[in-house]
Each structure stands twice: as C-alpha cells, then as structure tokens.
Design brief:
By secondary structure, the chain is an alpha/beta fold. The chain is built from 24 helices and 20 strands. The protein is globular. 52% of the residues are buried. The structure holds flavin mononucleotide, iron/sulfur cluster (3 copies) and FE2/S2 (inorganic) cluster.
Length: 603
C-alpha cells in the first residue's frame, strides 16, 4: 500500500538523548494498534537544526512541525493528526512576533533565512538507507565524474566553485586537491577530518549522522582527483551515533559497488576506513591527526612539508573537513557557477554555525556567506531570552574572538570576521548578554586551551598557563593594571612563537575581550568589582526597595540564603550566599543587583 503520510522523527544526538528512538517505537506500536501501519512511513532522520525545541518531528505532506514531543504525545498525534487530520496545538511552535502558532516548518523564521547545502539531506532522509540518498541524486556526481571527466577537470570544477575549507583555515579546497594531485607517488591518501573539538560545535556530527553518504561520495571524488585509492575518516569516539551510521553507510556503499574496486565499471578503486580519536582538541590539527592515525601520540609537527606533499606514512595526503566535503557533490550536480552565485566574492557558498549561548533558538543554522550577524542572532536565532541586552557574539570558538553590537551588521565571511579580530573557525557561535562577564569568558576559553595544549612547545605550554594565572588573579580581585599589560605582552609572544594553530590562536579570546571590554577588566582590577555579577569574589548581591515580595528569588536560591514573607521586601544572608546569580535572573522587577565587593565584603 502507498504510504499517505510520512512522519520524520529527528534522530540527531540531541533528540536521541531526549528519547526520539522511544518515540519512534511508540509510533510503531500505536500505528499497529490503529491498523494504519501500512499507510504511514516512519523515518528516523538526521538533525533538523532547531535542537533547542527537540525532540522534533515533522509530518508530511502538510509539513507540520511539532516540538518538544514526548513518548506520551504519540497516542494523540496518531489519533488526532494521522487519523483525523487535526493539528495538536500545544506541540506547535509559537511565532515570537505575534505569538501565533506556526503549523508548517517553512513558516518558521528560523528556517526562512537559511539555505541548506551542506545540511541538504539532514532531516530529509533516512541516513541508514542508501536508496534514499540515491533518490536525491546521491552518487550521481561521482558517476558523472568517473565516466565523463578527467581528474584535472574534477579539480578545476572545485577550484572554479571558490569553495574554501570549513575546518578553520579557509584554504581553497581546489588548490589543495591540485597540490596533492601534483605530488608524484604510487600511494596517496584522503582523510576526512571529523575530530570537531570546539566547545559547543556539532556541525560535522550532524552531517555525519544525517547524511553520511555525502561524505563518502565526496571522499571518492577527491580520491579520483588526486590519484588515491584509500580514505580514512578520523572521528572522535565520543560520536557513537555518527560512527555507527558511517560504518553502516560504508557497508552499503560497498554492497552497491560505489566503494571498492572498479567503481561505475571504471578502473578507479577506492576504499574508506574509520579511525577513532580519543577526543583531544589538538588531534583536529591535521599533522597531529596524521600522527594519531599512524599510531603515535597526537602532536603537531612543523609545516612545511604540508600533508599534500608528505602526509600519512610519508605519502601525499589530502585532509578536508566534514562540512567542506559535504559541499562537494552539490558543486558537481549544480555546477561551480551555481555554487559561486551563493555567498560573497571571496567566500562562496554557505556556512553552517552551531548557535548557542544566550539565544532563543539554539541549534544548527546554515546561511549563505554574506548574511549579517544581526540576521543570524535576531531573525534566525530569535534574539536574546528574558529581555536581556545583547553584549557580544564569539565566533571561532577558542581560536576566535568576540564581536560587539556595533559590528552586528557585518556580512559574515572569512575576511570580514578576521578584520573584526575574530575568525570563522569551524562554526561555533556563542551569544552573550549583559549577564556574561567578559573576563570570565576569556578565562573559560583559556582554561580550555591550557587543558588541551599538547605541551610540545614552551610558549603554548607555559605561556597560556601564565595567562590563565593572571586571569584567575583578576577574577579573584587580586589583579593590577600591570596584569592587563602583561596579558597583552604574553598573548603577542605566544601568537608569534607557538608551533601550531592551537597556541597561535589561544590568546585571541583574551586579546579581543581586552580590546572591546577593557572597562570590565579595569572594573575588576581597580574597583574590585565584576559589573556582570559573575566573578564570585567580586560580587555582593543586594535586594533594594523595588522588591515586591514575589518570593521567586528565594525559590530559586540553591542554598536557601534568601528570607522574607510574601509581599514583603526580601533579604539575602551574605554568609550563606555562594554568588551564583540565580536570584538576580529570577527577579521579575530587577530588584536584585550585584555591587562591588572586595573578597565578598560589600564596599
Ligand atoms: C588546534 C586545531 C584543531 C583543529 N581541529 C579541527 C577539527 O576538529 N576539524 C577540522 O576539520 N579541522 C580542524 N583543524 C584544522 C585542520 O588542521 C585542517 O586545516 C582542516 O582539517 C583542513 O580541512 P579544510 O581545508 O577542509 O578546512 C584544527 C586546527 C587546529 C590548529
Ligand atoms: S602550540 Fe600548543 S598544541 Fe601546538 S604544538 Fe605547541 S604545545 Fe602543542
Ligand atoms: S546569588 Fe545565588 S546563592 Fe546568593 S542569594 Fe542569590 S541565588 Fe542565593
Ligand atoms: S524575586 Fe525580586 S521581587 Fe521577588 S522577592 Fe525576590 S527580590 Fe523581591
Ligand atoms: S538533534 Fe534533533 S533537531 Fe537537532
């Protein structure tokens, strides 16, 4: 029987952790009970992007978007929606502008400004079914290239598209393929870098989970272009769903003879194996990654020679990021000119960002290069929650910097973000509001890089630790003005003398917060105050006369430090207060303020 309805259930890691697998099982049982199992297609897809509203399901043909679905909602969805065609109102998402319920996925502003190329199949197909990928022109690009194009023509198409690497460096992909092709050797390798270690980033994971075949197809295309018959996907073991789907996809592709010997009846052979990483951030750096695959400790080595000349086991190797590769089949299916028509002159195509922090719609977004940061934060991201004020956006993760309100209208591309003192990085985008302390933010990123430094070279190993000591001093109220100068001096030295990108970029968050928020650093060292009320040693919470006695603060205090009768002014017991700031956030009338203090004593 022909299925009249398709229920797509998000099977991305985010929704799976909120029981989307159990939701699918509940659908199977309920549809059997109702006797309509044959009429309804059930598919566990990849991530839809709006992870904050997960578990998400989308029902076709009317494209109904249901958010925060629970196992207990399945019965009513089946009985009301699938049988009688009535929407379940409470599971629909509200339009933030007029508070009306939105029925169709395409009407959500979160999606209307996006353009999905790398994520084209995520949330659309069953990633475990190669036929669904093929039905959407999967492996067509590989077939056409192998049977109608020379390797040089393949490289030219990628070069003409202007595609730049999405793994952080932004190097022209076609040029990289050309270098590897020009290296003369009887053995060459293709590596897909799926290490993805930036805190909060999950673009690559989503692509691997939602569309694994697109990566296999792109790697085979690269193998043909550079003259390689072996590829490796280096993926962190912390991504078990991605690994499972990749393993399954490789088996299916082999079964269909789309990997292995004589692909498409040609003399081109290509195999792909998976190598698991243990989750060290530095192993995402290509030379450290290569060392790790070779079985050594993942430590970067000096470049040149670049991997295109001397890479895995000394042979020419092309390393590309997952998102870079996900764009490749589209360049062949739609042409380099189509790809180039999207984005800006020097940054073609789209970019996927993992939007997080103080933003209403956290999740994955893919926008054409040239989209402004304001559009991403307000139109797609839905703005800042709880009527708080935007303060900054951090792009590029621990290697990037923060961008402030005055630059929000900047079109996003590789060059513009660099000009603003930040960088594209791999696509992490963290939004901060007035409750974020920027010294504390710098400290957070530096703690990460200190932890992740491989220790091979002194400037990074020792210098970042010294910077962290200074930041800790400043946050504790023991800093001096000289410390800020010292931070800048150390930062420039580490940038110039570190061996790899980790050390070279580790000081960026510190430098950019000093540049844009020097007043906050000065408040910490001179006034001994943390204006955002985050640094515990420098913050003292008080309740003023504006208190209406709603009791919300007391209910939210984790240590019962707040007392007071309903409708009367409340009080904070300083001895008990652990300076968590939960009361300030909970107060509906802004009656709680943080005031300067020295080591917890109000001044
Ligand atoms: C510390 C560090 C971590 C990195 N982590 C990643 C990563 O997780 N994924 C990635 O694709 N590239 C990462 N890179 C960049 C890679 O070295 C390399 O440039 C990239 O994989 C090349 O692919 P692309 O040209 O497609 O961007 C990292 C670089 C550094 C310095
Ligand atoms: S810069 Fe840091 S991570 Fe890179 S090699 Fe040196 S110590 Fe290791
Ligand atoms: S800052 Fe935290 S611990 Fe202190 S009174 Fe408020 S909620 Fe309680
Ligand atoms: S939340 Fe604000 S208004 Fe309510 S009791 Fe606490 S201080 Fe007073
Ligand atoms: S994981 Fe389900 S929407 Fe992203």
């Amino acid at each position: 029987m022909l299925e009249r309805i398709q229920v797509l259930i998000c099977g991305g890691t985010g929704c799976m952790s909120s029981h989307s697998k159990e939701i699918k099982q509940a659908f199977e049982e309920e549809l059997t009970n109702l006797g309509i199992k044959d009429e309804v297609g059930l598919v566990l897809t990849g991530c839809f992007g709006l992870c904050e509203r997960g578990p998400v399901i989308v029902i076709y043909p009317d494209e109904t978007f249901y958010a925060h679905v629970k196992v207990s909602d399945v019965k009513i969805i089946c009985e009301e929606h699938l049988l009688k065609g009535r929407h379940i109102d409470r599971l629909l998402v509200k339009n933030p502008l007029d508070r009306n319920k939105i029925k169709q996925m395409s009407q959500l502003t979160f999606y209307s400004k996006q353009k999905r190329i790398a994520l084209r199949n995520c949330g659309q197909i069953n990633p475990l079914d190669i036929d669904e990928y093929i039905a959407r022109d999967g492996y067509l690009a590989l077939g056409e290239a192998l049977t109608k194009m020379t390797p040089d023509q393949v490289i030219k198409e990628v070069l003409d598209s202007g595609l730049k690497g999405r793994g952080g460096g932004g190097f022209l992909t076609g040029l990289k393929w050309q270098f590897a092709a020009q290296s003369v050797s009887d053995k060459k390798y293709v590596i897909c870098n799926a290490d993805e270690g930036d805190p909060g980033a999950f673009m690559d994971r989503a692509i691997l989970e939602g569309d694994p075949h697109s990566i296999l197809e792109a790697m085979a295309l690269c193998g043909y272009a550079i003259g390689s018959d072996q590829g490796y996907i280096y993926v962190r073991a912390e991504y078990p769903v991605a690994v499972e789907r990749l393993e399954h996809a490789i088996l299916q592709a082999k079964e269909y003879q789309l990997l292995g010997d004589s692909i498409f009846g040609t003399d081109f052979s290509f195999n792909i194996d998976i190598r698991l990483g243990a989750g060290a951030f530095v192993c995402g750096e290509e030379t450290a990654l290569i060392k790790s695959i070779e079985g050594f400790r993942g430590m970067p080595v000096l470049k040149p020679p670049f991997p295109a000349k001397k890479g895995l086991w000394g042979y020419p190797t092309n390393v590309n990021n997952v998102e870079t590769l996900a764009n490749i089949p589209v360049i062949f299916l739609k042409g380099a000119d189509y790809f180039k028509s999207i984005g800006t002159e020097n940054s073609t195509g789209t970019k996927v960002f993992a939007l997080g922090g103080k933003i209403n719609n956290t999740g994955l977004v893919e926008v054409p290069m040239g989209t402004t940061l304001r559009e991403v934060v307000y139109d797609i991201g839905g703005g800042i929650p709880n009527k708080r004020k935007f303060k900054a956006i951090q792009t590029g993760g621990p290697s990037g910097g923060c961008i402030t309100e005055k630059d929000l209208d900047t079109p996003i591309d590789f060059d513009n973000l660099k000009k603003l003192g930040s960088m594209m990085g791999s696509g992490g985008m963290i939004v901060m509001d007035e409750d974020n302390c920027m010294v504390d933010v710098a400290r957070f990123y530096l703690e990460f890089t200190v932890e992740e430094s491989c220790g091979k070279c002194t400037p990074c190993r020792e210098g970042t630790k010294q910077m962290l000591d200074i930041l800790n001093r400043i946050c504790d109220g023991d800093g001096t003005l000289k410390d800020i100068d010292e931070l800048e001096k150390l930062a420039h030295m580490i940038q110039k003398t570190s061996l790899c990108g980790l050390g070279q970029t580790a000081p960026n968050p510190v430098l950019s917060t000093i540049k844009h928020f020097r007043d906050e650093y000065i408040a910490h060292v001179v006034d001994k105050a943390c204006p955002a009320g985050v640094c515990a040693e420098l913050t003292h919470f008080v309740i003023d006369d504006g208190c209406i006695g709603c009791t919300k603060c007391a209910k939210n205090c984790p240590v019962n430090a707040i007392s007071g009768w309903p409708k009367q002014i409340h009080m904070i017991d300083d001895e008990l207060c652990i300076k968590c700031g939960a009361c300030k956030k909970a107060c509906p009338v802004g009656a709680i303020t943080s005031i300067p203090s020295i080591r917890g004593e109000a001044v």
